[in-house]
Amino acid sequence: MSPEEFKAALSRWVTGVTVITTRSRSGEIAGLTASSFTSVSLEPPLVLFCLAHVSTSKSAFDAADGFVVNVLGESQRALSGGFARQGGDKFAGVGWRPGLRGMPLIDDALAQLECRIVQRHPGGDHTIVVGEVERVDVREDLPLAYYRGAYRSI
User: Fold this and answer.
1) What is the mean pLDDT of residues 33-50?
2) 101 lies in which domain range?
3) CATH number for the domain including 126?
């Protein structure tokens, strides 16, 4: 199997889109777009996301004790693209407020899950970051979906 075949198969999986944000212990805020997010457990409430080793945000996440999963709505496509790029000030022009530990809660997200990091695991060219959910906030709207390399409507 080639990497292209593997990616083609994975692109058939419809995912939601999240922006994962954090604040390092030194105060640096960082964020990235991720579709590699899932629930793990109800008791205790655990979720995970996968952090690429080449991510420019990796050092901030490595130096943090928590993260926020901001589940994006259909109207937040541009926000998703901004946080998907490498480097630069991803928060320029983005509305947000500090949550637990000062971590960024992005305005108008469909759901926000504020998490304390409980485990990190090696996973090939990624780190699997597991967090215990400490607080959530939700609102009603349509989700931003991703399928076969493009944003889709539900």
Assistant:
1) 96
2) 15-146
3) 2.30.110.10
